[in-house]
Amino acid sequence: MAEARTAAADAGSALAQVWHGGMDFRLTSFPLPEPGPGEVTVRVLVSTVCGSDRHTVAGRRSAPSPSILGHESVGEVVAVHSDGVCGVDGRGLQVGDRVVWGVTAACGRCDRCAAGVSAKCRLLRKTGHEPLGVWPLSGGFATHVHLPRGLPIMPVPDAVADGPAALAGCAVATAAACVDAALQRASRPRRALVLGAGLLGVATVAALAAAGVEQIEVRDVDASRVDFARRFGATAGRVVRRDGAPRSGTGDGDLFDAAIDMSGTPGGVAACVGSVDVGGVAVLAGSVRPHAAVPLDAERVVRGHMSIVGVHNYVPVHLRDAVRLLAATSSSSPWSEAVEPPVPLYRLPGLFAGPPARLRAAVAPSNPQSFGT
């Protein structure tokens, strides 16, 4: 094996919060693996707690254990295989680079990868989702991660702070994928609707605004989230009931060129599909868990030349687009306000005890305080 270029100051072991199911987290030490061909080792600076992490810990989402969770992270490269590894931007990665990485590691050889659907690779592995025996240092709730061949990595410019940068790996890249899907199917959309104003929703609003969409309406059950989304570029907002219907005011008959559901609720999905105008597109991304069936007016879809598309995960170009979006809007959108100040790694279990005060809670795994006492 060719030797790796390693930062001299980096220790030879990693500390991780290993999840054993439920609220059972255990601080565990691991040896740092030597990067093989196409591989990189990263010291984790900040990891945020995604909604899917919360669903996993709460038992609402099936996941293997023991494992290391966390898939929204930013870190510093500490080792690169000597043959070199390129980021999504085509530049060779160097020790000391600040980077984010994708959720999915694809094989690059199967029929789905060949068709450009690497997010659904037949041999897919996912950061923060793999059992210890398959990929030990896969999750961001650790001082270090081991990034394999096939995982997209993107350098982060100085203009993007660590907290917002971490969001690129899941929420912002997923939003970029959804907006890309909408733009491919709706001809020059001027009017867009976003259902759900969590982090996925506000990131989608920011991506739509950056794409030049003139009118962007956001809907959510929480008035404060609707107001927050306006600061990312929403031109209108409406507070709705959990069934998707407005609590007050008009707007039920408004139609849009593109509607994107991030709520993952039956009411949100129905409102999304029902709000699309002739030639428009409904993008469904929030429904990652089973919920009640949603009626579909097939005649309206057919006669209206509508498209309905699902988005789950993303391809490497969307990670690049996410970082570029964060950089371009770093001074105009309040990304830092979406992330709580990070806590030490030993305090991670407490972040799952209740809802976060902001859209994302965060940990700083490699901060010396993370080791506790």
From TrEMBL:
Organism name: Tomitella fengzijianii
InterPro entries for this protein: ADH-like_N, ADH_phosphonate_catab-assoc, Glu_dehyd_C, GroES-like_sf, NAD(P)-bd_dom_sf
Enzyme class: oxidoreductase
Name of protein: alcohol dehydrogenase
Similarity comment: family membership: Belongs to the zinc-containing alcohol dehydrogenase family.
Record's keyword terms, sorted: Membrane, Metal-binding, NAD, Oxidoreductase, Transmembrane, Transmembrane helix, Zinc
Record GO terms (molecular function): alcohol dehydrogenase (NAD+) activity; metal ion binding
Domain (Glucose dehydrogenase C-terminal) ranges: 186-330
One Pfam family named in its UniProt record: Glu_dehyd_C
All copies of domain Alcohol dehydrogenase-like N-terminal, residue ranges: 36-158
Superkingdom, natural source: Bacteria
Cofactor list: Zn(2+)
Keyword NAD: yes
Enzyme Commission number: 1.1.1.1
Transmembrane segments: 192-213
Gene3D superfamilies with a match to the protein in the record: Medium-chain alcohol dehydrogenases, catalytic domain (3.90.180.10), NAD(P)-binding Rossmann-like Domain (3.40.50.720)
One Gene Ontology term, aspect cellular component: cytoplasm
NCBIfam families in alphabetical order: HpnZ_proposed (TIGR03366)
